Amino acid sequence: MTETPHKRRVLLKLSGEAFGGGTLGVNPDVVSQIAREIAAAMDDAEVAVVVGGGNFFRGAELSQRGMDRARADYMGMLGTVMNALALQDFLEQAGVSSRVQSAITMTQVAETYIPLRAIRHLEKGRVVIFGAGAGLPYFSTDTVAAQRALEIHADEVLVAKNGVDGVYTADPNKDPDATLIEEITYGDALVQGLKVVDSTSFSLCMDNGMPMRVFGMEPAGNVTEAIRGKQLGTLVHR
Q1: What whole-number distance in Å separates Cα of residue 181 and Cα of residue 170?
Q2: How many whole angstroms separate alpha carbon 67 and alpha carbon 55?
Q3: Given the DSSP bridges, would you call strands 212-216 and 234-237 parallel, antiparallel or unpaired?
Q4: Could you give the CA distance from residue 235 to residue 215 in angstroms, rounded to a whole number?
Q5: Cα–Cα distance measured from residue 25 to residue 3, given in angstroms and rounded to the nearest whole number
Q6: Rounded to 5 degrees, what angle do the CA atoms 4, 119, 203 make?
Q7: 238 residues of the chain, pLDDT tens digit each
Q8: Crossing angle of helices 141-151/199-208, nearest 10°?
């Protein structure tokens, strides 16, 4: 008997801002495009997704305006579930079976997060969308993406960014001399203070040998190519 070749498994991190197209709420055209790009790569990989909620709420920003940080973070988690449900709907329209798993129990709209069940869905060719962050305050969805990737035994974390196509030496929107870094270690990224994802996410991936690829969502088709394994943007590794 010949063994079935291992299918590439990735964890795709999508920002809430991407879902809103730069505005408050969900932009159906943008989410539909993301869903189609994921659908186009399903023959080549097993795909799990972590979604942010910045198009609805940002806990850190709300807390700066006087709101209790923990309560603000929970509001942000609920925003991620709304984005997860929107992505699920457009994936189903694109012909891809999908499941939403929530770190906060809400059984009428999502499954409870169970790692082994998520892995089984992936093996059956379903996209698994993780909502509600970690279910705990003070954790960003960047950190959750790293944690979920490790728990489902993903091969790589893919971080899709808006307005930037990888990790730069400085903010390319502010510094015209900023240059793209095609490959960097987690240690160097932390020492240099590169803020493309939070330091906790970098540290978690570094400590567990999980590679991360940071790439731009534009032009159209980049999400598909990244899922398939194309060398886009910046590779961050141990």
Answers
A1: 10
A2: 18
A3: antiparallel
A4: 9
A5: 46
A6: 110
A7: 555 567 999 999 999 989 988 788 999 999 999 999 999 999 999 999 999 998 997 777 777 888 899 998 999 999 999 999 999 999 999 999 999 999 999 999 999 999 999 999 999 999 999 999 999 999 999 999 999 999 999 999 999 998 889 999 988 888 989 999 999 999 999 999 887 888 999 999 999 999 999 999 999 999 999 999 999 999 999 9
A8: 20
Quickly tell me which residue has 């398939």 as its tokens: 228
Peptide bond into 219 cis (omega under 30): yes
pTM: 0.94
Classify residue 218 by its DSSP letter: -
Amino acid identity of 214?
Answer: V
Query: Can you read off the two tokens belonging to residue 68?
Result: 């209790």
The residue to which tokens 């999502």 are assigned: 110
Question: Which residues make beta-bridge pairs with 51?
Answer: 14
How many Å apart are CA 213 and CA 120, to the nearest integer? 25
> Which amino acid type is present at position 102?
S
Largest separation between any pair of C-alpha atoms in the chain = 63
Residue whose structure tokens are 């940071």: 214
**Residue 189 corresponds to which amino acid?**
A
Distance in angstroms (rounded) separating the CA atoms of residues 188 and 235 = 12
- As given in the structure block, the two tokens for residue 59 are 């806990």
